[in-house]
Write a structure and sequence with these properties.
The structure holds two protein chains of two kinds. Chain A is mostly helical. In chain A, about 70% of the residues lie in helices and about 5% in strands. In chain A, the strands form two sheets. A two-stranded antiparallel ribbon of chain A has the order 1-4. In chain A, strands 2-3 form a two-stranded antiparallel sheet. In chain B, the strands form four sheets. Chain B has a four-stranded antiparallel beta sheet, with no helix packed on it. Chain B is built from 14 helices and eleven strands. Chain B starts with a helix and ends in a 13-residue tail after the last helix. Chain B is an alpha+beta fold. In chain B, helix 4 runs antiparallel to helix 13. Classes of the chains: A mainly alpha, B alpha+beta.
């Protein structure tokens, strides 16, 4: 029973929610449009900082959220202009570089007063704007053996709002993809020249997809930083790679794939760590090494997934295209 | 506070030597956690402890031992002496603002405090707060500092010609190292089309193995050569066991790229598993230096630069004038045509993997020598610079990769003169994006490569 509680705890943790949100965005990039965005963590950082800094500088929740979305939009446009006309791996290299640049700027000691520098922006600077919206009464609630504050640090309200957003984003994806707009996106993924010959501007559609997925990533960044702090290193390259695993695992170009992928990813990770801690003596594998071991398996999983089942769990191989 | 963080970032590499020694010691004795004797000396922050710490160095960057420092703040008063490595630390268990005072009387002879002898540090539990007391040999400079707290870094961002030339030579050194690693990246890209994200780990691999061989054998040159051979062998096996079967399976380039990312994650954490998170050093902790035309370099650096030039020159010569080189270029140009004209494509690609990995391993050995050690993540950190260099020169052209590397190396080291040190990689990546905007095929690439 304890074990099931742990699983549930992982499944609804803000981290899982944040990764699911960003993965839904990445799925729009990669799954539906075929864009190799290797900097989704950069979008998360931009969104997170856009929100966190705005609130820390005294803005309210909604203006801050608007700024965060505008910032991710701008980031997407800046990245898109040089790369969307080029071959896929250029987009990959530029997005990963841009994400790194942004992370380094976030870590700059000179900007300590704005971004918090290398120590990051502590959650207390921007969390209250979000918890202030909560309709829940103060206090604690226990559901299925899990006890959290209603409103506060690592609370039910974050989980509730995050869960709602996940459902909303899934719904948006579903609506978008069955619309004519979505069919153009899929067309670009399958054969860009064919789409262009129909008189559609592939460039403009790709840009729109990059922006929409990026904004979703930005929300992921906000949720990742709400319970703890906004730390540039929390959204580095490993985060992007994890998101890729999540999307590939669940099934790219499927509506529910990213969410399923996020759940399986985090639950498997906790299973590996629990199992290693329970069955392998500490002398062979210390706590920190267990963590590294889990990472090592993640790397292997990525290789095997891409080689043997690139369509993931829910995906359809025909729907998948890795075109360079 | 600003000055403190900037300068700590710069110093972590040198601090690393000692961490590395501790790690090596731990490895040798089979204990993976920090050695208890060390834990007592060095403050380790945890949920109930914060560390106020720093390193004192004399004006010629030697550690200053036996300097007395006193701490005053919420957890009371304390006094300590800086150790042999110039390091001092106060563990405290109450977060808040602390005042660290340096006893000027205890400074080594001929050394003066260049700014102030009192520093205010804010620490949180589980965190470290660093205070730096830059020393100078110039008494007049020390005199005007007085007692005020200086919040911006003096001197380190000031332009002067000697500093310019010093950074220029560092830039060439960095460029040569990047070139060693990115020539392999470029050759692999040219012949197979793979953007190999695990090239950075080949660099770490070379450096870390050199450290292991060094502890086993003790001769730097032998250890280095063994590490390079091991890296080349690893490249060979990568191609035999992984890349060739995957090519035959008909995986697309994007899939191969993601496979290389997976391999990179796998290798990074394998390194961390065996070598720990700290810095592993290869050479002597304080190598001899040579000085010419006012530029100071370690003997390791000079050696590394000469060997790099020779190695890169040899690869360049081989590409231009040998049968193998012509075959490689033919494959980069048009693989089916090359195959049709009787070139054994698989064999050439295999040699490219071997040479590319060997060169990356060599770069790793030099990284470890020049920057006082290597970590599991050194290669990963440099990877984007390699990509920047390769893209800048034009994907798939070896000569372009070399020129791109030199430019990136110079940019990385020279921006240090004007911009804060935390941005030195960022500027190189920014240039990469800028180049793609203006000239997507790179400096030496041909336009039709971009689709």
């Amino acid at each position: 029973m304890d074990f099931l509680t742990t699983l549930l705890q992982v499944a609804i943790s803000p981290t899982t929610i944040a990764f699911a949100l960003a993965a839904i965005g990445l799925n729009i990039h990669f799954g539906y449009t075929g864009l190799m965005n290797m900097g989704q963590a950069g979008f998360m950082l931009v969104g997170g900082y856009g929100f966190g800094i705005s609130v820390a500088q005294g803005l309210g929740f909604w203006p801050a959220l608007l700024i965060s979305m505008l910032a991710t939009t701008l980031f997407a446009i800046l990245l898109g202009i040089p790369t969307l006309k080029l071959r896929g791996d250029y987009l990959a290299i530029v997005t990963i570089s841009a994400a790194e640049i942004f992370r380094m700027i976030g870590k700059m000691a000179m900007l300590q007063n704005v971004t918090g520098g290398p120590t990051g922006l502590p959650g207390r600077e921007f969390r209250t704007a979000f918890t202030g919206l909560s309709p829940l009464p103060d206090g604690q609630t226990t559901i299925l053996g899990l006890t959290y504050l209603n409103n506060g640090i690592d609370d039910w309200w974050t989980r509730l709002a995050g869960g709602f957003l996940v459902i909303l984003f899934i719904f948006i994806t579903w609506l978008l993809i069955r619309s004519p707009w979505g069919r153009v996106l899929k067309g670009i993924r399958e054969d860009e020249d064919a789409v262009r010959s129909l008189g559609k501007s592939a460039y403009s559609y790709k840009m729109q997809a990059l922006i929409i997925g990026g904004i979703m990533g930005g929300f992921g960044g906000i949720f990742l930083s709400l319970p703890g702090s906004l730390h540039p290193d929390a959204m580095g390259r490993p985060t992007t790679f994890n998101l890729w695993i999540i999307v590939l695992l669940g099934g790219a170009a499927t509506v529910f794939g990213p969410v399923l992928g996020a759940l399986i990813f985090f639950i498997t990770r906790i299973l590996i760590i629990t199992a290693a801690n329970a069955f392998i003596p500490d002398s062979m594998l210390g706590a920190q090494q267990t963590e590294q071991f889990a990472w090592l398996l993640i790397g292997l999983a990525l290789i095997f997934l891409v080689v043997f089942r690139p369509q993931g769990i829910l995906g359809d191989k025909k729907e998948l295209s890795f075109n360079v | 506070m600003n000055l403190i963080s900037i300068s700590t970032a710069k110093r972590t590499k040198s601090v690393g030597i000692w961490l590395a020694l501790a790690t090596l010691l731990a490895l040798l004795t089979g204990v993976f956690s920090v050695h208890p004797a060390h834990a007592a000396e060095n403050c380790v922050p945890d949920s109930e402890t914060a560390c106020v710490e720093g390193i004192i160095r004399t004006s010629d960057k030697e550690p200053a031992a036996g300097v007395e420092l006193s701490l005053n703040g919420p957890s009371g008063e304390a006094t300590t002496l800086s150790g042999e490595d110039g390091r001092w630390s106060f563990p405290v268990n109450v977060p808040g603002s602390y005042e660290v005072t340096l006893n000027v009387e205890t400074l080594p002879e001929g050394q003066f405090i260049s700014q102030t002898d009192v520093r205010q540090i804010e620490v949180d539990l589980g965190k470290k707060g660093a205070a730096l007391f830059p020393l100078t040999a110039d008494e007049s400079a020390a005199a005007e500092a007085g007692g005020e707290v200086v919040s911006t870094s003096k001197g380190s961002n000031q332009f002067s010609w000697p500093r310019f030339w010093q950074q220029f030579v560092s830039g060439i050194r960095m460029g040569l190292l990047i070139a060693l690693a990115s020539v392999g990246l470029s050759l692999v890209f040219g012949t197979t089309g793979i953007s190999n994200f695990s090239q950075g780990e080949m660099v770490s691999f070379g450096g870390l193995l050199a450290a292991t061989f060094m502890t086993l054998i003790g001769n730097l040159i032998v250890a280095g050569i063994l590490a390079i051979l091991a890296a080349a062998l690893f490249g060979y096996f990568q191609d035999v066991l992984m890349w060739k079967p995957l090519r035959k399976r008909g995986l697309s380039l994007m899939q191969l790229m993601i496979v290389s990312i997976g391999l990179s994650i796998f290798m990074q954490f394998t390194f961390q598993f065996f070598y720990g998170g700290g810095v592993v050093s290869v050479g002597a902790p304080r190598p001899e230096t040579v000085e010419f035309w006012g530029i100071t370099l370690t003997t390791y650096s000079v050696f590394a630069m000469i060997v790099s030039i020779v190695a890169i020159g040899a690869v360049g010569y081989a590409l231009m004038y040998t049968r193998f080189g012509r075959a490689t270029r033919a494959i980069s140009d048009n693989p089916p045509l090359a195959k049709a004209s009787g070139i054994n494509v698989d064999k050439v690609i295999r040699i490219v993997w071997i040479v590319g990995s060997g060169l990356a391993g060599l770069a790793g050995v030099f990284f470890a020598l020049i920057f006082n050690g290597i970590t599991w993540f050194t290669g990963g950190q440099m990877l984007l610079l390699f990509f920047a260099a390769v893209t800048l020169g034009g994907l798939g052209t070896a000569f372009g990769a070399f020129v791109g590397s030199m430019i990136i190396g110079l940019v990385v080291e020279m921006t240090n003169i004007w911009l804060p040190g935390d941005l030195k990689f960022a500027t190189a990546l920014f240039i990469l994006i800028l180049i793609l905007l203006v000239r997507p095929q790179g400096l030496f690439g041909r336009k039709e490569r971009i689709g």
